[in-house]
């Protein structure tokens, strides 16, 4: 099978591996999630190498060395989900949605299509949520949108240098896909989001906000407070004051649909940083880990 889901073309059946290192789609775990009122299915593997990933054991599999569930036949997955929806736990909490997370979902588009089509046969009114980093071909993004009711789309940076430093990938496909999504299918966007990392990518927030504002000001943009994790374990978290000031700055651009979620107990005040310092700090962590 020639994989054309991502921007790197490989033949997965012949053992070739792209950045995601994926072969067959593998399930990390499934769960009933009352907060989201959904049955959530988490898939392994990702097209990014984010230095701050809070799910790196899943996204960086098999390099992480963790053991998870593995491949599950689409029909078996469907029957399991249907059974879970019928449990007293799910019914008492009004769990009626199917939610896919990762890792990155777009690298498993064939599996997603197989599962969702069968689920729709059983429950035509089923709402299906997806989360993506947007790093795929436009063709794959269109397929993802077609099977989704709502999409959480994360934009990690606006400038290519910073995006490459913290993810290992270029930002071009991400911006192209999110622009297409905002123009063609804004009704499918649940939220656009950015994890704000102090002195690393905070200089990107206003650029992303202006980008969104210029294309579709009716789209919700959410800033997510960074909590130390993975290669940024000893990097400072994002304070409440820092998040509030960024939201205020976004509103000064005319943005109305802007909010933030989460912060880290910290004394660090709000201070703007430039691109060069953010790139330098990111690569200092990579150098310390022996990556460069």
Automatic annotation (TrEMBL):
Q: Which SUPFAM superfamilies match?
A: Radical SAM enzymes (SSF102114)
Cofactor binding, note field: Binds 1 [4Fe-4S] cluster. The cluster is coordinated with 3 cysteines and an exchangeable S-adenosyl-L-methionine.
- Tell me where on the tree of life, at the top rank, the source sits: Archaea
Q: Which GO terms describe its molecular function?
A: 4 iron, 4 sulfur cluster binding; lyase activity; metal ion binding
Keyword tags: 4Fe-4S, Iron, Iron-sulfur, Lyase, Metal-binding, Pyruvate, S-adenosyl-L-methionine
State where [4Fe-4S] cluster binds: 46, 50, 53
Q: Which cofactor does it need?
A: [4Fe-4S] cluster
Note the InterPro entries from the entry. Aldolase_TIM, Organic_radical-activating, Pyrv-formate_lyase-activ_prd, rSAM, rSAM_sf
The Radical SAM core domain extends over 32-256
Q: Which PANTHER family match?
A: PYRUVATE FORMATE-LYASE ACTIVATING ENZYME HOMOLOG (PTHR30352:SF22), PYRUVATE FORMATE-LYASE-ACTIVATING ENZYME (PTHR30352)
Which protein, by its recorded name, is this?
Pyruvate formate lyase-activating protein
Query: What organism, scientifically named, is this protein from?
Result: Methanobacterium bryantii
